Amino acid sequence: MTPSPTDLPALRAALLAWFDRSGRALPWRVGPEGGRDPYRVWVSEVLLQQTQVARGRVYFERFMEAFPTVEALASAPIDAVLKAWEGCGYYARARNLHRAAGIIAQEGFPAHYAGWRALPGVGPYTAAAVASLSGGEARAVNDGNVRRVLARLGGERQPTERWVQARADELLDPARPGAWNEAVMDLGATVCTPKNPKCPECPVSASCAALASGDPAAFPAPKVRAEVREVRAVALLLGDTQAAVLERREGTLLGGLMGLPTQLLAPDELPAAALERLAARLGARVTGELGTVTHTMTHRRVTLSVYGGEGGPPRTPVAAEALSRLDHKALALWERREGSLFAERKS
DNA sequence: AATACGGGGTT
DNA sequence: AACCCAGTATT
């Protein structure tokens, strides 16, 4: 049920009062409302894309330590940026952040939504967030929290992006756009949660159509997700966990990160065949199998068989490079090889 | 409108 | 094992 226009001020006042009392204290929420440090806000928003706050917070602190200013970020090598991002996923975010930092270092921070939106890695959500939180501009954000909160308030089971944005635009408090955006997201994250929402604690429960329906958690309906595909590959560990042959991954999957030389198996291909191709390409000799690891990456499940070998290109220090979790799992097999197990075996 | 893109938390 | 997370870029 859409609140009538006369309810709107009351709804805004109720949520903002709750926010002023119960909003989260977060490390990027520094500076005056609507006038926050654009660098911190921008970095945090990119870091928090599809990443939970608890996790993003750890990376944020690490990132600010390594790159305290946009100039520091712009002048840093991309490898250092990826290393700071290691393990956080969606590495295009780090590559785009670095590219955008170069632009900002030249031209200064964008003054408005459109300028933010033009930067690589800044979409409608991030542009609205930074423009409102840092610039005081009246732009309504639309993220997973907003989608859920508004779907429930409006009693809409299948909210389209268009519907959500339209509702968010209507509700946005033009007097406090930054605080309003943070308030809706805080409500979604702490009260109006996906499962078991805490409706008794909700400052706007009286206006909630989903609660009135009796089953608020049923709003919005779950999104249909693509199936997880199976992928098989072989990898060659030439060296050890300290120094090994590493290659830079090209393309979109883990692009920019370093990793063990890897060969995907064609459908129905035997690992031995792919391994032979891989060893031939590197000019290396396979000495034995270290084991198999599996790794799930939302949309695909990778089964990677790892082999040890000799020869091939020069080894490089592993610790300095940014590796995916998959490669860390592969490297961990080295510690479990026969000799090591024997040496560490206790009586 | 779909799909690719990481990795992990919560239920 | 679902379902989700302060989304974006590319089809």
Automatic annotation (TrEMBL):
<dbReference type="GO" id="GO:0046872">
    <property type="term" value="F:metal ion binding"/>
</dbReference>
<dbReference type="InterPro" id="IPR044298">
    <property type="entry name" value="MIG/MutY"/>
</dbReference>
<dbReference type="InterPro" id="IPR003265">
    <property type="entry name" value="HhH-GPD_domain"/>
</dbReference>
<feature type="domain" description="HhH-GPD">
    <location>
        <begin position="47"/>
        <end position="190"/>
    </location>
</feature>
<dbReference type="InterPro" id="IPR029119">
    <property type="entry name" value="MutY_C"/>
</dbReference>
<keyword id="KW-0408">Iron</keyword>
<dbReference type="InterPro" id="IPR015797">
    <property type="entry name" value="NUDIX_hydrolase-like_dom_sf"/>
</dbReference>
<dbReference type="GO" id="GO:0032357">
    <property type="term" value="F:oxidized purine DNA binding"/>
</dbReference>
<keyword id="KW-0234">DNA repair</keyword>
<protein>
    <recommendedName>
        <fullName>Adenine DNA glycosylase</fullName>
        <ecNumber>3.2.2.31</ecNumber>
    </recommendedName>
</protein>
<dbReference type="InterPro" id="IPR004035">
    <property type="entry name" value="Endouclease-III_FeS-bd_BS"/>
</dbReference>
<keyword id="KW-0479">Metal-binding</keyword>
<keyword id="KW-0378">Hydrolase</keyword>
<dbReference type="Pfam" id="PF14815">
    <property type="entry name" value="NUDIX_4"/>
</dbReference>
<dbReference type="InterPro" id="IPR011257">
    <property type="entry name" value="DNA_glycosylase"/>
</dbReference>
<dbReference type="GO" id="GO:0006284">
    <property type="term" value="P:base-excision repair"/>
</dbReference>
<dbReference type="InterPro" id="IPR023170">
    <property type="entry name" value="HhH_base_excis_C"/>
</dbReference>
<dbReference type="InterPro" id="IPR003651">
    <property type="entry name" value="Endonuclease3_FeS-loop_motif"/>
</dbReference>
<dbReference type="GO" id="GO:0035485">
    <property type="term" value="F:adenine/guanine mispair binding"/>
</dbReference>
<dbReference type="GO" id="GO:0034039">
    <property type="term" value="F:8-oxo-7,8-dihydroguanine DNA N-glycosylase activity"/>
</dbReference>
<comment type="similarity">
    <text>Belongs to the Nth/MutY family.</text>
</comment>
<keyword id="KW-0326">Glycosidase</keyword>
<keyword id="KW-0004">4Fe-4S</keyword>
<keyword id="KW-0411">Iron-sulfur</keyword>
<dbReference type="InterPro" id="IPR005760">
    <property type="entry name" value="A/G_AdeGlyc_MutY"/>
</dbReference>
<dbReference type="GO" id="GO:0006298">
    <property type="term" value="P:mismatch repair"/>
</dbReference>
<dbReference type="Pfam" id="PF00730">
    <property type="entry name" value="HhH-GPD"/>
</dbReference>
<dbReference type="GO" id="GO:0000701">
    <property type="term" value="F:purine-specific mismatch base pair DNA N-glycosylase activity"/>
</dbReference>
<keyword id="KW-0227">DNA damage</keyword>
<dbReference type="GO" id="GO:0051539">
    <property type="term" value="F:4 iron, 4 sulfur cluster binding"/>
</dbReference>
